[in-house]
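Lab channel / #folding
Pinned by the channel admin:
"Please post every new chain as: sequence first, then the structure tokens as a reply. Keep commentary short and put observations after the output so the thread stays searchable."

First post following the new format, from NK:
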Amino acid sequence: MNNLYSRHRGVLPDWLALYYDEPLELTHGEGRHVWDSDGNKYLDFFGGILTTMTAHALPEVTKAVSEQAGRIIHSSTLYLNRPMVELAERIAQLSGIPDARVFFTTSGTEANDTALLLATTYRRSNTVLAMRNSYHGRSFSAVGITGNRSWSPTSLSPLQTLYVHGGVRTRGPFAELDDRAFIDACVEDLKDVLGHTRPPAALIAEPIQGVGGFTSPPDGLYAAFREVLNAQGILWIADEVQTGWGRTGDHFWGWQAHARSGPPDMITFAKGIGNGASIGGVIARAEIMNCLDANSISTFGGTQITMAAGLANLTYLVEHDLQGNARRVGGLLIERLRAVAAQLPGVREVRGRGLMIGVELVKPGTDEADPQAASAVLEAAREGGLLIGKGGGHNTSALRIAPPLSLTVAEAEEGAAILERALRSTY
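Reply from TO:
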């Protein structure tokens, strides 16, 4: 392992972060478990950053990929592609967007890039509204709309980005308000921002902020925003890269917690749909998707082998009601962790929905973020046989828990017990 780490450091960028003081090489997985190169077994509560959504080595996906690889792996979007059309049809139908069109990419970053291209072209504006504490990818344009300093290495951008309140419920200037007053204050802030600028192209927002620590507004905030945006023709892009496909349990899409004013104009997706295969994409109303007046293709977007994986994975997800499982098992896991948190002064909040759970840590007796404790808990959980993630904004540190949606009650209990021991060893 040390030899591989040295080779990694010798040829890959310094900024390519690795978890753990002694980084892991994961060699194989099955169900909700993975194994490292030393033979250690771990319960996986992070799923390759919310990407192994269904299960490791899911036989249905493995079979579909193998069979497709035996026929043709790739042909590009210059040719008709049956698996791409079939997956697009299913996603369009599930999206809730009327007259939907789907464009496939290879990642969530590229999906958000595409949505920005469409929005700025359609609206003839390069001004974009984004949420504070947000994350939308690592490309030049996506970094330019990311409201999280830890993930934004440059202030240069082709876009003029304006950040509005609302993505973090329990911190910031409106934290002490009740939910209704919080939404009203955020709407007034949005109106005020719009009064100071030229009309923006779009608002892009994660229904639950992923990298930011699984924070979210009260249900209905983006519906209230939508009423203001609609009055000026401003588009709403829902970044569902982490929240889509039933992970939140209550809904298939995160935007559905804010559905009073109708669906978004665009949805971006990636991660879990491929269960590890590189699939991203944009869903948009036809008039928006078709607004480009120049050629545009995607060499690897929609390639047959990834589409086969996505079709098999989506079919399994729906037929086995993994959204319902996320709601049931996730609800139990959240309550179990809240019971633990009540006994630990370093846990500020356990939040989330379904199998998308954040545990925010602070220095005991204060409201100050404790990133060192988050790293320590990560290490202790790994020692106990559990893999989790972490995240947060400029003033927060949180553990991120997002197991595959097929998690069993017994595995949830096992993971919660390991995490409890890790938290108690740190605090």
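NK: Residues 147 and 199 are 20 Å apart (CA to CA).
TO: also worth noting, The mean pLDDT is 96.
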